């Protein structure tokens, strides 16, 4: 008796969480130390101490009624101002308090943007492979998600598939770099290609195409610059989450950021403000907002992720696996050893290796290895990966 | 360039927050002590000390990575179990951990339920006057809100308008008691009438009609019992928020509760779990969830609201105003002294009284007085109300 809309999508979805649940069952049978679970993107590095310190200080010093009361739908003014100033200093931008809308994480931000922009049948283009929930966000709010497959040799956006995916119905392009599931950081060259095509198409269609940059992994980039997209394209809307930078995904805090040069800026802010209410968010949690006054530049120790990435990348390529060097996030995209990535994942389970099939991310033939696990687990998994590889050589 | 869906609703909405903003402007001109602002439902009684104590203890004792990490979409198991046990003891129910889904407040819960149940054109019936955002929640998620006007002499549900509002397209009935905007607590007699009609109509239509009970004001009831609806109707889905009971509306925490006798129970849980993700919620904020382990039965001091209610109710009726005795929440519904409630509100502003027009709540000819203000403000407003009344006697 649930809605037909939902029924259809539930039946067709491959839920990574189910695989994760299966991992828990396997751990119960074989012992968790004997399972190599690379399925879910749950941060494994401790939050910086500043998070708890900030929360306690706020609880000790602010008046409870004001602290826990309703802020404006768009968030506390001093928090929004603080974030605007931080971004302006860090990325040489021109944000003001007005252009920052506090949201319950990046997922909420994307849904708020979708509700603000999409009428029935409008299209959203994203680069595939992509985070599978994108489809749910867009389709729940009346849109259609159109994937533009990356060049699978480089995992970078491809000009031909991208241009072919755009249409007069495209309201926004959703870009995610560093990328989930591939770990790729889109190069400045890729960004220029994407934004050049967008500028051309905007002119051709006679209406704006917004570039929505979903950046929860921005801080998790290893010895590489992640281009800041406002410098390449005026109609950029940045979506950010502190889930990964501070290892606090359960606390649901992030923001939408727009410079005033974004077309229909005031109108968009009004629409997003209303959408915060219409979608039942009302406002992002108040304590988590205030915490950012003291943690806006804090970060987890990313060298821990980097170490695990290096162990796995070197070991897997040495064994003979194909994978593109992942420069960010905590994902490594691995070419399956047979065409059917789901079957490959099933076979890997025999070696107690759990991975997410690329088909779930519109990246068939590949698998996602989430390396947000202790370095020790990565090390111990290497013989199992070797055994799996050898099985395919017979 | 925002979506046409949103544009239409923005243009037609009467936003109470705008009136509240106007109040702030008036306060700047005349001094806040000279303005009687009864427009917005922002709790004015201090949160119980247990809230901050619980949060600090959790921050001091739990491991940060687990505390701030992803809980299940439906919430922390121990929190859900704790709430189930509490409700079973308090209201003699039969909830289990599985039947409790933690949400970012009651608004989020209603949107999650709407997304789980509504296909395009499905209907939701609610008793008018109603909280104006109901329309936005339902219509954003594909439904149509159908109001059933209460008996305006008693502010209780009316059997004739209710039965007329139901149709084979009705997926759920949204009920809110204690009520925003009227302050009415629906009597046991009203509840029996409503649920008897629902039982009859379910049979007639051959499919379930869920009764969604939105109860953020349950704890704010003055010397009166608020019937617990699961005792009257099996297909009841309870929606709760701690915003008012604990004066923490900025923190966004609440739940959905279903007993296993609810039709299609497992299916609904699967749909709601998916909807938590599809709507971008992912999960209710983790720290706020855990806080409930220590605050599930805590409450603000409701005698403070009751005192203000008594001052206003007695003074206003003595002057000659018509209002029905408000037994719960912090709202008093007052009959306007002219047919056009918006004009009446405008005229009240001349006396520095700010109220919300009933038209915004589908209760034309009346106005909402939010008495979540200091008792002193209520007392000092009485001469202004008298002057306003006298103006209409000429």
From TrEMBL, chains A, B:
It is an enzyme of class 2 (transferase). PROSITE patterns: AA_TRANSFER_CLASS_1. Residues 34-375 form the Aminotransferase class I/classII large domain. It comes from the Bacteria. GO terms for molecular function: pyridoxal phosphate binding; transaminase activity. Keywords: Aminotransferase, Transferase. Pfam families: Aminotran_1_2. Its EC number is 2.6.1.-. InterPro entries: Aminotransferase_I/II_large, NHTrfase_class1_PyrdxlP-BS, PyrdxlP-dep_Trfase, PyrdxlP-dep_Trfase_major, PyrdxlP-dep_Trfase_small. Transmembrane segments: none annotated. Its cofactor is pyridoxal 5'-phosphate. Belongs to the class-I pyridoxal-phosphate-dependent aminotransferase family. This is Aminotransferase.
């Amino acid at each position: 008796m649930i809605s037909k809309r939902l029924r259809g999508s539930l039946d067709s979805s491959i839920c990574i969480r189910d695989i994760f649940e299966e991992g828990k069952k396997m751990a119960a049978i074989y012992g968790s130390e004997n399972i190599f679970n690379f399925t879910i993107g749950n941060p494994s590095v401790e939050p910086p101490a500043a998070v708890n310190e900030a929360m306690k200080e706020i609880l000790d010093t602010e008046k409870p009624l004001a602290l826990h009361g309703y802020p404006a739908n768009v968030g506390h003014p001093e928090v929004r101002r603080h974030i605007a100033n931080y971004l302006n200093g860090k990325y040489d931008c021109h944000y003001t308090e007005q252009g920052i809308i506090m949201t319950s994480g990046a997922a909420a931000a994307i849904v708020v943007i979708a509700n603000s922009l999409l009428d029935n049948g409008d299209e959203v283009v994203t680069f595939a492979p992509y985070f599978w929930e994108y489809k749910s966000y867009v389709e729940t709010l009346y849109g259609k998600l159109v994937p533009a497959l990356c060049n699978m040799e480089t995992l970078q956006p491809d000009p031909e598939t991208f241009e072919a995916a755009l249409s007069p119905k495209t309201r926004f392009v959703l870009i995610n770099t560093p990328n989930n599931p591939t770990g790729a950081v889109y190069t400045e060259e890729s960004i220029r290609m994407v934004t050049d095509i967008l500028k051309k198409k905007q002119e051709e269609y006679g209406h704006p195409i917004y570039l929505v940059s979903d950046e929860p992994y921005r801080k998790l980039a290893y010895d590489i610059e992640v281009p800041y997209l406002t410098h390449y394209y005026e109609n950029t809307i940045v979506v950010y989450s502190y889930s990964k930078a501070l290892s606090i995904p359960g606390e649901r805090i992030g923001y939408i950021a727009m410079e005033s040069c974004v077309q229909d800026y005031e109108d968009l802010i009004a629409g997003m403000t209303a959408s915060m209410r219409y979608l039942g968010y009302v406002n992002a949690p108040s304590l988590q907002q205030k915490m950012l006054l003291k943690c806006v530049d804090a970060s987890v120790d990313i060298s821990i992720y980097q170490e695990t990435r290096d162990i796995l990348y070197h070991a897997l390529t040495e064994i003979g696996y194909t994978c593109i060097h992942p420069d960010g996030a905590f994902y490594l995209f691995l070419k399956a050893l047979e065409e059917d990535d789901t079957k490959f994942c099933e076979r890997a389970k025999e070696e107690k290796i759990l991975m997410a099939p690329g088909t779930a991310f519109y990246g068939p033939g590949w698998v996602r290895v989430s390396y947000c696990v202790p370095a020790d687990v990565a090390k111990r998994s290497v013989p199992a990966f070797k055994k799996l590889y050898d099985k395919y050589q017979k």
